[in-house]
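Progress against Task 2.4 (sequence-to-structure conversion) is shown through the following example record, which the project officer requested during the mid-term review.
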Amino acid sequence: MYSNGKIRGNRRVSGFGRRNGGNGGGRSGGRSSYINPNVYVNKATEAVAEEAFQPIHSFSDFALNPAILERVIRRGYVQPTPIQDQAIPAALEGRDVIGIAETGTGKTAAFLLPILTKMSASRGERALIIVPTRELAVQIEEELRAFAAGLPIYSALCIGGGSMFTQLRALERRPQFIIGTPGRLKDHINRGSLRLNDVRNLVVDEADRLVEMGFITDTRLLISYLPKDRQSFFFSATIGPEIRHLIDAFMNNPETISVKKRDTSANIDQDVVRYTDPFHKLTLLHEMLIREEFKKVLIFGRTKHGVQKLADILSERGFSAVAIHGNKNQGQRQRALQEFKQDRAQIMVATDVAARGLDIPDVTHVINYEAPENYSDYIHRIGRTGRANKKGSALTFVK
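C-alpha cells generated for the chain above:
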C-alpha cells in the first residue's frame, strides 16, 4: 500500500517545494455507490503456463476473397485468434454471430473480413456498425481501410464531435460501411441523410458498454430501421438481460462463440494509495510517475475539467502528458490518443466515457486518481493494463 509518503518495498517518497497543485477535479454530479477500498487491493496471480492456442484454421483456409486474403497476409496476420478462428467460418456461412470477448481479442477482423468478402461478391451489400464511443468507431474505420486498401470500398464515420459537413458528404457517396455512435446515427436519420432500409449487415460492438452508457434505446431504434432479412453480429464482454432481450428480438438462430477465459483483472497487481490532502495526493502521484517502471500510464479522473487540469499540471512539471475528454473535439482527441499509443506521451489522463473501448497496447499502469463511480467502471478502467497475458498494475487513490 502507498501510504503517508511511503511506498511498500521501496524508498521513502520525498516531498518537494510547496506549490499550487490541486487534486485534478472533484466528484461528478452523477450517482455513485460506495466501494469498499479493500476491493482495490489484489495481488496478480502468477502467470500459469497455458497451452498455446492452436487454431483449427489458417487464414488461407477461410473462403475469403483473394484480394482481402492478400491484405490480411500483407499485414502480418499469421494465425487467427480464437474469436476469428470460430467466428469467421460461421459468418462466411451467413450465420448470425454472438461473440463474447473483450477488446483486444481480434474481434474487429472477425466481422470485417466476412463482410468485405460478401461485398466483393455483391456490390449492393452495405453494413451498419454501431459502437458506444467515437474512439472505437475511428479504430474500426482504420482497420477497415487497412483491409480494404485499394478496393472500391467507402465508409462514413458518423460520430458526435466530428464535422457534420464531412459526414454528409461521405453519406452522399452511398458508402458500403456506416460506422457510428447511436446519437449521431439517429441525428442523420432524423435529418434524412441516412437511410437503412437496404443495409443487410449489422454489427453491434461493445454491446455491454452501449447499455452502461444509456444507448440501448437508441440502438434498438436504429436496428428497427434495418430490413429483417440481414446478417447480424453482436460482440460484448458480457451478456446481461438487456442485451439478451436485444439478441432475442433482432437475431436469427445465432451461433454463440465465447473466448473469455478468466477475469481480466487476474494478472493485474491492484493496490491503494493513501493520501491526506490534495497537495499530498499530487506529491505522491508525481513521485510515482518519475519512477522508471511507470513507462506508459493511463490516469482516470471523473470530470472533464479535472482531467484537463491534472494533465496541465503534469505538463508544467515536465511530464509528457495528454488529456482525452468530452470537451475536446474529435481531432484533438485523436491526436492525444495517437501520441499516447505511439509512446510520444508517457501519460494520458482520461474520463471514463472518453476511454471506453480503447485498445492501447503496453499500458504499464492504470491510476485511478479519482475513484470510479462503481465497481463495473473500476473493472473496465483497470482492464486497460495487463493485456495480452502481460502483467499490469492498477493503483487507486483513497483518502
